[in-house]
């Protein structure tokens, strides 16, 4: 049997503790599957004295994660500290420079520094793996880089933030407002005290940027992801969508078009009867479309101790078994800068306008839409207030740029009392 | 760059042709991803003259697949001829004995000879891979052996025969009888002229036996799969199930219980609102449950040229990248014979009895059920004919053995005019 593979664990929060539990619980099974023992050698975290409910006495303690990453008795650094820069990045860089493999769950770090870190890994013959950074326990990075490696990927879609999906499904199921559901989610521990990172779509956009690079062989380009959060979605929008057979989801879409790479993370309408439309609560779902395979759909737990530890251990097992493929599927130096000029595929849109309640305002809004080549499929006027006439519209397929120009014109006109809301209806 | 990896292709039907198309279409992309060229060297099929719509002129032709498997200029044999014995097995054995890797889509061969072939592969340092044999284009074998390798798997479930799922969903959607839908499916090419292999559950049971061995580290034991087909399912059963919020699916379940391995492929009721219950048409779905990850669900095309070629190419890429893990996740000689004494987990059941239409017959049937510890949750009597009183019953959780004894007793009694139908309600 081969020598044991030796792990250093940087970070002992929920995820790090999960990894310790897995290695301790399944030592024999992991050895049988990997053909060698999986051993934790050393660990590092902020507080040494904190009780984490696991026995750490067999491991060397390092206060400094960079010192941890440099140890001679370590083959793999598992980085689960978090933070896009700072100690996490320093530890990862040190490990890679010393030819040690790195496994990380740190989507923010990779979204910003993925290219540099992948190049550093390859220059030093080390693997850089990040299954746990995207869609929790679902082995979707593996599916993309390995199982579906024979395909040209045509589209990647995903609901990859459990907090947002929980909030949106709760709003629909209970009829509660965004603010109330967010408060509940915070009390249940599904949302952070500062929820901006989740509800603003940033966390999910990090994940999409990683999948997009892997799918299309482009350099990670987080700045190129058009990102909108769910904080402007009202109960009214969700109820109107449901009425028309749609669910509102914070949906990531990446697609290579003729005019470049399109990357979007935004609330969209998807058919209620589709797998994406039926996805409830904190579960994640990722959809890959390939030119030969067609559509494959993967769902599972997007976060949590066990699911994240499972993803990390999948990467450990690969390295233990000798697999070392480039982080994003092809050598980092071959990744091309994405052309981000893509105007985006046409789509039908759901619009909500707040018009002044006097004769001719709808005619004026409709005229502006028509002027910009936006054609109306369905419309509905509802709940007249004293001065406001709210109107919902579903358009025929429209060029996104035309639509945004039309909405800007409506917003600037005197018939509109509030900024129009537009949600893309994603064709599945 | 490493030397090209050289493929011999045994079989040029739909799947083999798909592999040729993929290698020809994506030569450059595959080379970039594998770090070496993927080349087809030689091919073999029954008819050399048949026009398959692809250019085979660059490949050596061998009439004999065994001669193909023996060629010096071949690293991987892809076997897509089919047939559990005969030339397919002979070619695979020859390749493995000569230290060549084998990729096969042949579930029947592996269900019967998987253990011997895995041992032969390992004795010769060759890989034996079969992603295409299970659930078509879904990279589920990879997910199980690699991505989820940190987990003890607790349950495997799958809808893995597109023909059966098409027939069952069509019956529910159109209200047509089994025989009529089967005839349509045959005309559409979804079902074979002799459908026994599909509708009898054999094809799906082959697949389950392979997943089960991989999940639980047991020797492939196809004979140990309790297999029932869908040919006894009536429109009545489907409609009653739908009325109660269930869909009927040909569902495979493998579970390691305290008293041994349970493997079943049988029509079951699953909640209509669950991912399995919503699965329509020829799509496949596989569910893995692991002790750390929880539940992961994978769906995609279960058959067809492109999907199967995609699965095969995933295996090619792994081998080209140097991955060589045992066929079933651990060395074949370490796989344990499964203890098949498992009585099966308890479950609620849907029952349809055909009783004589005279006073006291239902009381007698209920008495027999009670005598065997089967307790009734719901019952319904419907559509009295002159002499028959059909009754449907949903039981509380019952021990499968008790239920089968009770039904045998009812069947043997004079109150029953036809063999009772029992469908398990699988808890998801």
Identify the notable features of this structure and list them briefly.
homodimer, 428 residues, alpha/beta, Rossmann fold, Dihydrodipicolinate Reductase, domain 2, Alpha-Beta Plaits, 3 domains, 10-stranded mixed sheet, 6-stranded parallel sheet, 14 helices, 36% helix, 25% strand
Largest interface: A-B, 60 and 61 residues
Oligomer: homodimer
User: What overall form of chain A do the CA principal axes indicate?
Assistant: elongated
What is the string of SSEs of chain A from the N terminus onward?
Answer: EHHEEHEHEHEHEHHHHEHEEEEHEHEEHE
**Name of the CATH architecture of the largest domain in chain A:** 2-Layer Sandwich
Description:
The structure is a homodimer of 428-residue chains. Chain A is α/β, with parallel strands linked by helices and 428 residues long. Chain A folds into 3 domains: 5-133, Rossmann fold; 140-299, 2-Layer Sandwich (Dihydrodipicolinate Reductase, domain 2); 348-425, Alpha-Beta Plaits (2-Layer Sandwich). In chain A, 36% of the residues lie in helices and 25% in strands. Chain A contains 14 helices and 16 strands. In chain A, strands 7, 8, 9, 10, 11, 12, 13, 14, 15 and 16 form a 10-stranded mixed β-sheet that branches. In chain A, helix 4 links the parallel strand 4 (76-79) and strand 5 (101-104). In chain A, helix 1 packs across helix 12, helix 5 (107-123) runs parallel beside helix 10 and helix 7 crosses helix 8 (178-187). The model of chain A has no long low-confidence stretch (mean pLDDT 95). At the A-B interface, helix 1, helix 2, helix 6, strand 12 and helix 12 of A face helix 1, helix 2, helix 6, strand 12 and helix 12 of B. Strand 12 (294-301) of chain A pairs antiparallel with strand 12 (294-301) of chain B, so a sheet runs across the interface.
């Amino acid at each position: 049997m081969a020598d044991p593979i030796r792990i250093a664990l940087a970070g002992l929060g929920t995820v790090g503790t999960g990894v310790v539990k897995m290695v301790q619980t399944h030592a024999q099974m992991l050895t049988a599957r990997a053909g060698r023992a999986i051993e934790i050698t050393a660990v590092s975290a902020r507080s040494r004295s904190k009780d984490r409910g696991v026995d750490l006495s067999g491991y060397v303690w390092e206060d400094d994660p960079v010192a941890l990453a440099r140890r001679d008795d370590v083959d793999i650094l598992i980085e689960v500290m978090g933070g896009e820069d700072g100690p996490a990045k320093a530890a990862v860089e040190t490990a890679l420079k010393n030819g040690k493999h790195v496994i990380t769950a740190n989507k923010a770090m990779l979204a910003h520094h993925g290219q540099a870190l992948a190049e550093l890994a390859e220059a030093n013959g080390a693997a850089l793996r990040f299954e746990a950074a995207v869609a929790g326990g679902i082995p979707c990075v593996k599916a993309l880089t390995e199982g579906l490696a024979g395909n040209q990927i045509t589209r990647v879609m995903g609901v990859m933030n459990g907090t947002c999906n929980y909030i949106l499904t709760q709003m629909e199921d209970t009829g509660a407002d965004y603010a109330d559901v967010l408060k509940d989610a915070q009390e249940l521990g599904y949302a952070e005290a500062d929820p901006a990172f989740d509800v603003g779509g940033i966390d999910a956009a990090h994940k999409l940027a990683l999948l997009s690079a892997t799918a299309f062989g482009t350099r990670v380009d987080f700045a190129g992801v058009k990102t909108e959060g769910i904080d402007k979605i009202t109960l009214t929008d969700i109820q109107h969508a449901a009425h028309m057979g749609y669910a509102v989801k914070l949906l990531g879409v990446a697609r290579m078009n003729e005019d470049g790479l399109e990357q979007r993370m935004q609330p969209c309408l998807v058919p209620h009867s589709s797998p994406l439309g039926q996805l409830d609560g904190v579960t994640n779902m990722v959809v890959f479309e390939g030119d030969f395979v067609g559509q494959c759909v993967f769902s599972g737990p997007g976060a949590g101790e066990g699911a994240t530890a499972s993803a990390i251990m999948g990467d450990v097992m690969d390295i233990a078994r000798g697999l070392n493929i480039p982080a994003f599927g092809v050598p980092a130096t071959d990744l091309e800068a994405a052309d981000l000029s893509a105007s985006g595929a046409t789509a039908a849109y759901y619009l909500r306008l707040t018009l002044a309640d006097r004769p001719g305002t709808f005619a004026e809004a409709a005229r502006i839409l028509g002027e910009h080549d936006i054609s109306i499929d369905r419309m509905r006027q509802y709940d007249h207030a004293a001065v406001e006439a709210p109107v919902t519209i579903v358009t025929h397929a429209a060029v996104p740029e035309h639509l945004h120009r039309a909405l800007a014109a409506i917003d600037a006109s005197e018939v509109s009392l509030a900024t129009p809301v537009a949600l893309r209806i994603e064709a599945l």
